[in-house]
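Dear support,

Our group has been running a series of protein-ligand predictions, and this particular one with alpha-D-galactopyranose is the one our PI (initials K.S.) wants archived with full inputs and outputs. We had some confusion internally about which version of the output was final, so please treat the block below as the authoritative record. The input we submitted was:
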Amino acid sequence: MSERLFEELLDETKRLFVEKYGVAPQVLVAAPGRVNLIGEHTDYNGGFVFPMAIERCTIIAASPSAASSATIFSNNMGATADFPLDPDVAPADKVEWTSYVQGAISMSVKKGAKAPGFNAVINSNVPLGGGLSSSASLEVAVATLMEELGGVSFGKVEKALMCQQVEHVYAKMACGIMDQFISALGEKDHAMLLDCRSQESKMIPLTDPSVSVLIANSNVKHALTGSEYPERRASCEEAARRLGVKLLRDVDLETLLASKDKLIDEENGDRLFKRAFHAVGEDVRTLKMADALVAGDWETVGAQMYASHYSLRDDYEVSCPEIDVLVEIARNIGMEGGVIGSRITGGGFGGCTVSLVKTDKVDEITRILKEEYKNQVGKEATIFSTRPAQGARVL
Ligand code: GLA
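Confirmed final output from the archive:
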C-alpha cells in the first residue's frame, strides 16, 4: 500500500518535471515526514524524544539549467518561484513555502554547496500543517538536493542542525531538533531514541509485524501554534532558570517536587510548575516506553502513551477537544479491541494522534475511529498506518 503511494508520488513528480521543463530530471531526492511515538515538547528542554520517519515524504526532481538561479515548481502550492543561489538572501517578512526553500538553499550555499542553476519540481504527500513535519521534510529534501547538485556532503547531523536553523531564521519558528533529525537520520524499521542534550541517537527496531503504527489526522488546526509554542518554550526556560539549571532535562522528578515553591507565584499561579512537571515526567515516560517496546511489554507501552497524552492535555495544555476525542475513542476500544496505546503527536493544538495497534485489527479500529469521530466532532478524520521509513536519500 505505502510502496504504491511512494511510487505514485515519484511517477507524478517525474511526469510534472517533463511537462514543465521538457526533459527528464537528472536528480531525485526524498525526505520523509515523521510521527513522534512519545517524548513531546522535550527536545528544546534537552530531553528525550522517540520519533520515527513515516512512509510519506517530499520528493524533489531536478536538473541543472543554464540559469544562475533555481526555478522551482511546487505541486502542492500550484506555484512556481525563482530562488537566488545566494547565501545572504534575507528572510521574507511573511512566511510562505518559499521561505523554507530559500532558507535551505541559502544555508546550503553558505555551507559550501556550489550548486549550478537548476530547475526543480517539489511534490509531497505529507499532509501540510498536520503535525507530521511537512516543513522539516521540505527543508531536509532541499538540503539533500543541494548536497547532490553542489557536490558536498554535510553529514546527516550537520544537515539536520542546519535545517533547524532554516526553520528558526526563515520560518521564524523556534523549534527543537526532533523533526529535522528524524527526517535526516531515520532508518527503515526503526524508531529513534534521541537524547536531545548530547544529540546522540539510538535506533530501536520496530519490526514486530503484529503491531502497527496508526496515525489519525483530526483535520483541525487551531491557529494557536504561532504564539503558544514560544510561550511553552519560554516557560520551560524560566522554570529551568529558577531551578538553577541550564535545561529542564537536568532536573529529576524528586528535585522538581522538592523545589515546587520556586515555580509558584502570584503572577503565574502553578503554570510554570505544570509545564516543568510535564517536561520532566515526559523524559521518564519516554525512556520507560522505549525499554518496554524492546521487551514487548505492551501494557507498559500503552500506559506511557496515555500518561503522556493526559500530561500534554492537562499540564502542558497543548491538546484540543478534537484530539482528545480521538484518544478517548482509541482508549475505549482498548487492548481487547487491539489498541495498545494512543496520544497526541507533534506540537499540538490539532494535527494528529498516534496509536500503536494490533495489525490484524487495523481495519476495524480505523472504521470505529472514523465513525465515532464523525459522530462526536462532525468532521472526517484521515487515518493511515505506516511502518518506520528511511530518512532523507538520493533516489
Ligand atoms: C514541533 C517542533 C519540535 C518539537 C515538537 C513537540 O514539532 O518542531 O521541535 O518541539 O513540536 O514535541
